[in-house]
Design a protein that fits this description.
extended, mainly alpha
Length: 226
């Protein structure tokens, strides 16, 4: 009976938590972003603190470094992305035409053998799809840029997230200690073990994705520059 009551309590609390998240989801973005940043910057702040720097200064250094990298990449890659997208929108029909020219013989042979009459439909669909996807993507980007809510969210992200991230990184160990004190003592070892595994899996995944992105960036940048 006791187990059943505790299960009902936890399910009820989880339901209330999900309902609360649903109610405040419009304003959660800066706080979620700050929490993610704090999660990744806490090890950096710990290493700086172990080197003799105060926790507050270590937090400031880690956040300033992250901000410099983040906004540097944003301002560096943003114009490049817009230029590449505009270039793609102009050249995409030519790419389809070039592909058709190079492989038209084999394509016609296969279509004549397996799907007579399909060539015209695919050609029309290819050109129509290329034009539509460029137009739709452009409309989405323009809508995101010009949307009032997007502007407000971006301003909130810029103004609120650094403040929240600062206090989360500075007090991360205190928050973890407070959460640790709330865990029932007879479940402490198993719950710590599970959270350690979760942390190891997330960190391994992030490192793996970063390495893959770095390798692909180097590969494509070198090959496309030749």
């Amino acid at each position: 009976m006791q187990i059943k009551q505790s299960t009902i309590i936890w399910v009820s609390l989880f339901t209330l938590f999900c309902f609360f998240i649903y109610l405040v989801n419009d304003i959660l973005t800066p706080f979620v972003f700050a929490a993610v940043v704090a999660y990744f910057l806490d090890p950096v702040a710990d290493k700086l603190e172990n080197s003799g720097i105060s926790r507050t200064n270590a937090t400031l250094i880690s956040l300033v470094g992250f901000g410099a990298v983040f906004f540097g990449c944003l301002f560096l890659l943003g114009p490049i992305f817009m230029h590449q997208f505009s270039k793609l929108s102009v050249n995409l029909p030519e790419y389809f035409a070039e592909m058709e020219t190079k492989h038209s013989g084999k394509i016609r042979e296969l279509m004549a053998q397996y799907a007579p009459g399909l060539e015209t439909k695919i050609k029309d669909f290819g050109y129509t799809f290329s034009v539509q996807i460029v137009q739709k993507t452009g409309d989405i980007l323009r809508g995101v840029i010009t949307s009032a809510s997007a502007v407000v969210n971006f301003i909130a992200l810029i103004l609120i997230s650094p403040v929240v991230a600062f206090y989360l990184v500075r007090d991360w160990d205190v928050i973890v200690k407070k959460a640790d004190d709330l865990i029932p003592r007879h479940k402490l070892v198993s719950i710590r073990h599970e959270f350690s595994k979760i942390d190891a899996i997330i960190s391994s995944y992030i490192r793996g994705q970063f390495n893959v992105c770095l390798i692909m960036a180097l590969f494509y940048s070198i090959n496309l520059s030749l």
